[in-house]
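Annotated sample (chain length 458).
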Amino acid sequence: MKQFKKFIFESYSFDEVSLKASFFYSFDNWNEIFEEIIDFKSGVVNENLHSLQNKIVLNNFLFNLHIALWISYYKLFPTKTLEVKSGFLADEQIVFWKKFYKNWLWEFFIKNDIDFSELINFTNSWSICNLEELTVKNNYIESSANFVKSKDLLLWWGGKDSIVSFSLLNKEKKDFDLFVFWKNDSIKENTAKIAEKEILLVKRQLSKNLFKLNEEGYYNGHVPITWIIAFVTFVVSYLYWYSNIILSNEKSASENNTIWNSLEINHQYSKSLEFEIDLNKYLHNYISKWINYFSLLRWMYEYKIASIFSKQNKFFKDFSSCNRNFVITKEKQKKLWCCECEKCSFVFLILSPFLEEKELLNIFWENLFEKIELEKTFRELIWLENYKPFECVWTYDESLLSAKKVIKNNNISWIVLDNLKEEVLEKCNDESEKELEKKLLKIEWWNSIPENFSKLLK
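Output written by the structure step:
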């Protein structure tokens, strides 16, 4: 494995005819250049293209996307220095980027036993005279980048959370499109058809050199795809006149998975409220103050979301939240649910208080409470063991309440719940069950959601 000292943001380009953007990166000016291509034209349902004459504004959107996409390549061999050649980062911007990447990369560093104490130091290649162009750019953003339209963009995964967001928006007859990044699949496509919505698809092509170096033994690991999608949607919003980018991240996304050497580690940091607040500040200060980025479900617990989703039975046979459907390098699974992972176990658990067994079988095709090999997973979900997996799942209260509800309301003997019954009832008596349910069904309110969306949650 070759050792590197510096990661370089080389350049980016944009073809105004094909609407394809290319982003280039390297290590130490090495001859292995990484080129990533984002196709902003493919599958687009909105033909109302923004004028591309304002190159300063468009380039600013693309420059920030260039800084966001690098993580797929940087993690091959994390370096101390990051050299920015494609633009200029002000000190305040560097603070933002460093905070995010260190918060997200803790998990990657821990799993790969990497000393991160001196990593991620941004430097600019631009000389001082380039600051004049930067000033013009930022002034232009403030004065001339008003492209507000009434259209909204909902990130679409075909899982229960995005389906609940769809149902809330659709009920109030909001004008919105569904957005998919990278590639479409049967889950997203089939659920979109049921929703009677077309998909705005933006394709991504990773550099072939990334997979080549992975095979040679360079580092690999989880990438915060939500973070990357955020900066892609900023460009999409500019090109196609969207003003609200709507996500379906819920309250538990802000919970930590573990504490390591006094550091709080959150697998879902790019879905957390803290990140959402920071990102909006950055977006409004350095890219555009006319775009809003927020989660419609931010103040709902998963338990509340599951209660709403349980009434959306037309989606039951086609939705999935199993992350093994979206693994990049492995062969895709043939069924919607693997019925082996923490995510499948959690979704089965959180839906079980609201659905009959036959409805759960209609979704998963098997009863996960009867799989003895999943007992340890369910113990972790309910916090009968002091461990929370690095997955996009739950709060402990939600898992405990769901288990208590199923144990209390079902006379059927299922081996996993039988084995956990005594401990669950000890942790959650009837009085605490009522308190937990009142808390978890409540929708709290905070100003991270624009005011004109408030009535959707009442």
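Annotation: The chain has two domains: 6-295, 302-321+334-441.
Annotation: Residues 91-111 form the longest helix (21 residues).
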